Amino acid sequence: MYYVLLSGGSGKRLWPLSNEARPKQYMKVVTKEANSMERCSMLQRVWEQIREAGMEEHTVITAGTDQMELIRSQLGEPPIAAEPARRDTFGAVLLSCAYLCSHMGASEEDYAVLMPVDPYTEGSYFETLKSLEGIMKKSGAQVGLMGVVPSYPAVKYGYMLPGERKGDYLEIQGFEEKPGEERAKELIEGGALWNCGVFCVQIGEILKRALEYGVPKDYEGMFRSYEKLPKISFDYEVLEKARHLAAIEFGGFWRDLGTWDALADQMNTDTIGKVLLDETCENTQVINELNIPVAVIGGRDLVVAAAQDGILVAEKGKADRVRGLTAGLSARAMFEERRWGTLETLDDTETPGVSTLTRKIRIYDGKTSSYHYHKDRDEIWTVLNGTGELILEGNKILLEPGKAVCIRKNQRHAVKALKNFEYIEIHVGTSVGNQDINRITFEWDEIELSHIL
Amino acid sequence: MYYVLLSGGSGKRLWPLSNEARPKQYMKVVTKEANSMERCSMLQRVWEQIREAGMEEHTVITAGTDQMELIRSQLGEPPIAAEPARRDTFGAVLLSCAYLCSHMGASEEDYAVLMPVDPYTEGSYFETLKSLEGIMKKSGAQVGLMGVVPSYPAVKYGYMLPGERKGDYLEIQGFEEKPGEERAKELIEGGALWNCGVFCVQIGEILKRALEYGVPKDYEGMFRSYEKLPKISFDYEVLEKARHLAAIEFGGFWRDLGTWDALADQMNTDTIGKVLLDETCENTQVINELNIPVAVIGGRDLVVAAAQDGILVAEKGKADRVRGLTAGLSARAMFEERRWGTLETLDDTETPGVSTLTRKIRIYDGKTSSYHYHKDRDEIWTVLNGTGELILEGNKILLEPGKAVCIRKNQRHAVKALKNFEYIEIHVGTSVGNQDINRITFEWDEIELSHIL
């Protein structure tokens, strides 16, 4: 039995804390244990639960290549199936199965359980997952599912419609998405289950679909031909066409933390960050990632979130509207977390003929950048804190607080953090930000030095 | 007849938009005319109304010396009586009267009307003020007042208690501050008026009080001895002790914009700045001075204000609590407006042994700084936009986008903006911000040049 954590998605429903560069599953807003005050991301919480369930050795995380650095900065070096492009969930499932066979020792006869990265649940969830293999064999189903026993008539979830009960599993006849509250009550009376997005397949059954699109079944081959796969969901391509579905039931605690409403209710504190919550507030949670304080007076049933991308004030129950409301906003992320450190945009000024970008950059001790140059911008760096080394056109320069360096167009440079290294980087030119990065070598030790200054 | 606009006060009740460096009366949140979309400050609106009433030639603005630059940047060169220290309203009234005699041609027999800078009212308010001189002469009162005819039983205002009516004025028997709603109704039935903070005195009667404290009656003399005056209010020192008070009535529209509740209700739009207001919001106003968007969903009766100093989310009717809630916050203003331009703090990082401050500075075309140096910090400047000139240790340097300059400790420097000049200034050292500025000369033309680079 193998497991796949599907960690794609851009998390637009959790604006402004999540963005393309840091989707919701990497936001540090939950805790590993109920009474802990130490915050972690949803990914870190789920990974810890997988480890405790003893499933770590058989689990791969599937995510876009742009999220590799972030996953490694949060988890170390877990197995990752990297999606070179977005191809919706059908492509992600195919690539995950290919990775399991090519790199984790799975065979085509083995079963894989695919699950979303953002359930907020308890340890028994993972124990229940383990029984899916037995159900697949016993039922002969094409797809195995896990349904959550509803604890209230939720209108925001999808429901699985039960058929015949066969001992420890249920036949599933179909699905119904987000019913009204009355309909949800009827469904629950009829034994329907919440669809928590978990499914189990036999790896070979899935991999043979790759050939239909002219894509090889091995991971490296599929990676190279990934663009050939259609942009369709697993639900559409496989689940809805399957004639035989079987589900096990999970009766424990489970919530989807994909919306502000759900997330705010699971925080074990009302405030995160610099927040002044007046005593007149009721049922109000505030998350502030900015350096300036947020004061809330008389808030009732509110979620307030402030981050480098923007500020949200939303009444609970309506926070889902954030995705539509913010759809037209510029996509440039104001805060980015990378394997090597963080980038915070402080200012972004465009005038005719010249663009500028001012960022505060922290690099973790010992981390390095590639050796690269920019064709269309100058960069002016000023060190705020700690120590680092710059290699500029082959010369090594020590960087300390107050040191400033101008890196002109076409000058090759690389940086290494020694200790607590923070600096301000100002881009001035016609290409600013994460574009116009022309790499010569990725490895610090391969840079040729002319001088040591 | 002379007029005084009392423009003191730090505006803590309008946090985060107003701060010590930019009190509420200078915030650009109102409009000059009802249907105009062009925003102006309360000071600019009132000054325009004074001009329209033909009172401009006889009006002085009284404010702290730290507000001179701000007033000039908003109004040009109006007469200003500058308070060298804070001495509450009694001192401000004395200094205003001294200025009227020393610089505006008033005699001690003349009358002066003193009024707050932040009423939100209509033109007839100023016409009504003009009748105070006649009332003073007719009644022989020590202090003349103007009362607003109440339009509802407000609990947030003070009331004047009427005595006998004498033709076109009322004798006033006393005052009652912020009554409950029931009491307010009783007061209104009894003919009480809202106290809008306007009073009229004979200049000589006030000026003779200065001598009691050993302070000269002329403006320059009083300015130099200002510290000798007690920190007490005009209400306490004069009004409450006066045996004879007479008031005229103003029946037009008047509101005190000193709180968020009042201010939000007078905005002629629900949003100022980058704001996404969802259609589910009701009676909600949002002012955003930040560069990042504020999205509000399902807000009911809310005021949301975001500025460089912080973010406020408050239910209307409770916004008054902001002053207490934010009392413990650091006083450093994140946005400052000066005569010569603006200062925006982007980052503020302190580590043991070294403090840093990153600010974006705009200087208006043609404006200059003093020639000065810093003992305990380096400054690294990077030009973002426009052109300027730097004099560094007697050398003149042209500043253009992408140009970076390190100004080390003890290096004398001055800057002049030529056109659209904006730059990032990073302070690194043990003294950052508005301290450690050691001036050699204030005038650009007096700086001795060694070279023109």
Question: What attributes does this structure have?
Answer:
homodimer, 453 residues, alpha/beta, 8-stranded mixed β-sheet, 5-stranded mixed barrel, 11 helices, 29 strands, 20% helix, 39% strand
Please explain how this structure is put together.
- The structure is a homodimer of 453-residue chains.
- Chain A contains 11 helices and 29 strands.
- By secondary structure, chain A is α/β, with parallel strands linked by helices.
- In chain A, strands 20, 21, 22, 24, 25, 26, 27 and 29 form an 8-stranded mixed beta sheet that branches.
- In chain A, strand 24 (377-392) and strand 25 form a beta hairpin.
- Chain A starts with a strand and ends with a strand.
- The relative contact order of chain A is 0.12.
- Chains A and B meet through strand 17, strand 18, strand 19, strand 21 and strand 22 of A and strand 17, strand 18, strand 19, strand 21 and strand 22 of B.
